[in-house]
Amino acid sequence: MKRSLVNEIKNIEIGEKIKLNGWVQRRRDLGGLIFIDLRDVSGFVQIVFNPDVSKEALRTADTLRTEFVIEAIGEVVRRDESQVNKNNEFGHLEVIVEDVTILSKAATPPFQISDDNINEDIKLKYRYVDLKRQELQNILRLRHKTTKAVREFLDNEMFVDIETPFLSKSTPEGARDYLVPSRIHEGEFYALPQSPQIYKQLLMLGGFERYYQIVKCFRDEDLRADRQPEFTQIDIEKSFTDQEDIIEMNERLISHVMKEVKGLDVLLPFPRMTYDTAMNEYGVDKPDTRFDMKLNDLSDFSKTVDFKVFKSTVENGGVVKAIVVKNQASEYSRKNIDQLEAFVKNYDAKGLAWLKYNEEGFTGPIAKFFGESEQSELKNLLNVEENDLVLFVADKPSVVHASLGNLRNKLAKDLGLLDKNQYNFVWITDWPLFEYDEERGRYIAAHHPFTSPKKEDEGLLETDPTKAKANAYDIVLNGYELGGGSIRISNPELQEKMFKALGFSDEERDKQFGFLIEAFKYGAPPHGGIAYGLDRFVMLLAGTDNIRDVIAFPKTTSASDLMMKSPSTVSKEQLEELNIEIIKTKE
Amino acid sequence: MKRSLVNEIKNIEIGEKIKLNGWVQRRRDLGGLIFIDLRDVSGFVQIVFNPDVSKEALRTADTLRTEFVIEAIGEVVRRDESQVNKNNEFGHLEVIVEDVTILSKAATPPFQISDDNINEDIKLKYRYVDLKRQELQNILRLRHKTTKAVREFLDNEMFVDIETPFLSKSTPEGARDYLVPSRIHEGEFYALPQSPQIYKQLLMLGGFERYYQIVKCFRDEDLRADRQPEFTQIDIEKSFTDQEDIIEMNERLISHVMKEVKGLDVLLPFPRMTYDTAMNEYGVDKPDTRFDMKLNDLSDFSKTVDFKVFKSTVENGGVVKAIVVKNQASEYSRKNIDQLEAFVKNYDAKGLAWLKYNEEGFTGPIAKFFGESEQSELKNLLNVEENDLVLFVADKPSVVHASLGNLRNKLAKDLGLLDKNQYNFVWITDWPLFEYDEERGRYIAAHHPFTSPKKEDEGLLETDPTKAKANAYDIVLNGYELGGGSIRISNPELQEKMFKALGFSDEERDKQFGFLIEAFKYGAPPHGGIAYGLDRFVMLLAGTDNIRDVIAFPKTTSASDLMMKSPSTVSKEQLEELNIEIIKTKE
Fold first, then answer.
1. Taking 70 as the threshold, does the pLDDT of residue A399 lie above it?
2. What is the mean pLDDT of residues A263-268?
3. Which of A236, A279, A402, B364 is most deeply buried (CB count within 10 A of its CB)?
4. pTM of the prediction?
């Protein structure tokens, strides 16, 4: 007799026999009978042990405990109307067991699977137990559904899935590499790829025209809660394309994923916003557009007022901006506002000025600095209404934007303005080509060194590179960067200018990227692409805010695998073969 | 105007305009006109520059050279019947160019793409040029078609694609690991996975029941021609299964792939052969069954003859076997046979005895040792006919099998007996559970330590482990191991016995696999699976015998990437951050 899955019980006639395999989810003993919820990959169903049917099966059932693995054979019957379990798809049926076998016993699990109050480290140590949790089961299946939808779409569009190497080469641009010592080549190392960027461009030079890959990438960075040392990218590249073409195709891709995975129709095209607008109006380069509360620029207004803090900030090249928290003035005590001030200080703001508005006008510590006409002007500029709270930061633009942009997001969360079931996609375009790297003390590529400048800005590379805008675009969903890409440089002379603008000497450039510049000499098609962070995409689709929920075997924020105890020490012989030794710096 | 692909020209009305993008494949100048074959991802078509249509386009055309990237707009016309290029799908059409733009110039490539006589190292250095070769284009597309067919099948069977970690843990069982130093955990290392074996078993414990992944794996072994340091596995695991179920499902999987990729119907079920039969009759554990020439066991016969070499070999526990090369006696001179003898000496054979058969009977140096009745018996045992060549090896079984098994394959190749278009699948079953590892001086798991013994052999683990057979199976195609798997141990006590039989102390076992044995205590479903070597599978489907042909960016046999020059030296700072330094052993 062949095993049926629980959900196949629907196809079995009442009175017919079924063989089920699965785990004991719950046991109840009642009136000499034993009732067990048997769970498998497809669901669960009640199976009943009745002494009138089989005394032996009942005896075995009496030894069953939670998570035992069993095989049960019995007759499918319909439950009394009054007994139907309305919370279960198969709650109207049950199986009267004739024969049962214990396939595996189970010790008491280290924690209750359904218990939400378990320390995450314990759950990670026993990940195989936690993986049985319905939520994780659902999320990892949703992840597969997502990649399947992506593949379907790209396959239909004639993209070729091509694997690129993991044992790659270390390049100093970008984040820190994970290194792999070579045994054969003494003193040399491979690097795990941070992305297949160079390979995918070489595939374009190799004439493949349309490439994709869903692939692991690696960055040895200090981890934050939403980062993992290895992460998965949906990597796409296309020849004979431009920004419009890439955006249009990716909108169709996302629309297909949303339909297949969430059953949702998204409205195309997505809105677009320049990088400058995003920064000015939302303070961040990945605006959450599910709610309003935009940044209002009060710099011009501030020039005209007597309030010295505002006035002098603007006179010294800074800006003054404010957000309006609608209808919340009465909810925020001084103490609450002090907490918000502490929050913006994380972003280097020196303080958070505030005003409340009601029918008598503005109140608050700085109200006195504004005369009647100024208050009236402010009211109009901010469109304030009864019971609104206004929060101001005056500083250099980067501080104002970071402070108010992040405060805006925090307030939306605190005030419950975020609807998990709303998906607001927005393209951010016209990125700067360069950004200043404090650590390196020089300009670096904002995206990567292969991103092309806007045609009209090519001349700026040699004159005023920091003013150049890039043919780069990010797709943002609900305040998260879902993916980003660019149209690449396909002209070797322009690429050389780019490296020069980045401060590379000819020697450095040739050492690191010589082969690539050479490659572009043999006929390079115009090309561009995009890469999505799959983990984050799935996180948003699944409605979780824990990145570890979307990864079967995640690492902690110190990049440890608590289950396997990895990383771990290795033998002296292994290190000798690799011609390396450990430098002890701590005891 | 939107770009069309070359193959979309079929859908365009004669007289309509088309915009094409692609590479200059060939140029001919004739009677004041210029003819160019324009190639893109979908094919190539002739485009014509005529001064009567556009003098400017003709002037640009005159500057075009091979591999220039261009955009051309023009009218689609039908070629004269006499001019049709019958070697091209679109040879009956051409485009009269009105406007042409050079998108990229191209330097003369470092070698002619179509030249087969280029040193492979040069081709690997300029891989992006070689990738334009039609054969590589086709193979990498066939690779994608293969993975697509595999995914389709497994998705339909409710398998879940789940990603497992790359930053994993080093385990001394198995091949040599690639190590990755940890920056955060001083003196500790990750290892790149040799396979996701442990993870996929944990997913079964975690209740996923059906898992697959198409995933890179890593082995730092000395490379042979058909090995790469990183290779791709189709990895499959299933719960509540047994050997029959796995074999049946994988036959349907392979059948689906053969249909989708090659358009072939394969006959199911595949033949099966025990490991012992394969070794006895084919000398190898991956028999090529496309041709006969099996090994004949003459050990019993040898006991009865006066030929001392044969007789004493058998008396000392060895065997005598022979293969019959049909109808080739006259083609093999003494010198040819000496070459075959040199070949078997690679497999430690001390010599290769031979006889030829024709109407007068057996001839050859050892014929004199056999009397008339013995010759007659030999004739019957070997079924020899006129002009057959018989080749004998007498030695211990492992030497006889390796010598004759590999000689059999070599002869088939030399004699052209191998039909590339014939696909002979065969399951090899009933593998030994252990094999002797000369280097370690102890028994190791023939498959891996999680493979279950045959039910009836479980007792042997504690008494005579080397006699135990495993629930293991390999799928062999045309003499290559395509994949292999087993039903795993799901009982923690049996797993502990297995580690004991492998010579692990309790301490070693707990250190390396403690978490796994622990994991099995919380309710382990019976499970098993298989893993295919994708690179080899694609190699066979593509009919190439160079593994580098099926990999976009392969490494050399010294594990180097000649294009990127990887591995490479890294900075002192990078090593310091990882707390390691290089030991110099050479100057």
1. yes
2. 97
3. A236
4. 0.95
pLDDT of residue A440 exceeding 80, the answer is no
Rounded to 5 degrees, what angle do the CA atoms A97, A103, A106 make? 105
d(CA A409, CA A45): 44
- Tell me if B167 and A230 make a contact (CB, 8 A cut-off): yes
Q: Is residue A328 marked as binding?
A: no
Q: At what angle do helices B275-282 and B397-414 cross, to 10 degrees?
A: 70
From B155, B181, B230, residue closest to A148, measured CB to CB: B155
Is A115 annotated in a binding site? The answer is no
Burial bucket for residue B531 (CB in 10 Å: 0-12, 13-18, 19+): buried
Q: Which of residues 253-272 of A touch B (CB under 8 A)?
A: none
Measured distance CA(B420)–CA(B427) in Å, rounded = 20
Q: Helix, strand, or coil here: B243?
A: helix
The label of the residue with tokens 């002739």 reads: B46
Q: Tokens 């290892």 correspond to what residue?
A: B191
Q: Which of A137, A151, A165 sits opposite B207 (nearest CB)?
A: A137
Lowest mean pLDDT among A172-176, A209-213, A356-360: A172-176
Mutant choice from A124, A154, A167, A494 vs B, greatest count of B C-beta within 10 A: A167
A203: nearest CA in chain B? B128
Contact: A104, B68; criterion CB under 8 Å: no
Q: How far is B376 from chain A (nearest CA, A)?
A: 54
Instruction: List domains and CATH numbers for chain A.
Output: 6-104 (2.40.50.140), 137-272+426-550 (3.30.930.10), 291-418 (3.30.1360.30)
CA pair distance B146, A374, nearest whole angstrom: 71
Query: What is the 3-state secondary structure of A361-397?
Result: EEECCCHHHCCHHHHHHHHHHHCCCCCEEEEEEEECH
**Hey, CA dihedral for A10, A11, A16, A17, is it positive or negative?**
negative
Chain A contact for B186 (CB, 8 A cutoff): yes
B447 labeled part of a ligand binding site: yes
CA-CA distance, B394 to B400, in Å (whole number)? 6
**A536-561 pLDDT per residue, tens:** 999 999 999 899 999 999 999 999 99
Q: Please write the tens of the pLDDT for every residue from B493-510.
A: 999 999 998 888 999 888
Touching A: B residues 148-167, CB under 8 Å: 148, 151, 155, 158, 160-167
Report CA-CA distances (Å) from A32 to A27, A49, A96, B330: 13, 9, 14, 86
Residue found under tokens 């100093």? A172
CB-based contact B169 A68, cutoff 8 Å = no
In sequence order, what are the residues at sequence separation of 6 or more whose Cβ sits closer than 8 angstroms to the Cβ of residue A203?
Answer: A162, A164, A211, A237, B128, B131, B552
Q: What is the DSSP letter of B10?
A: G
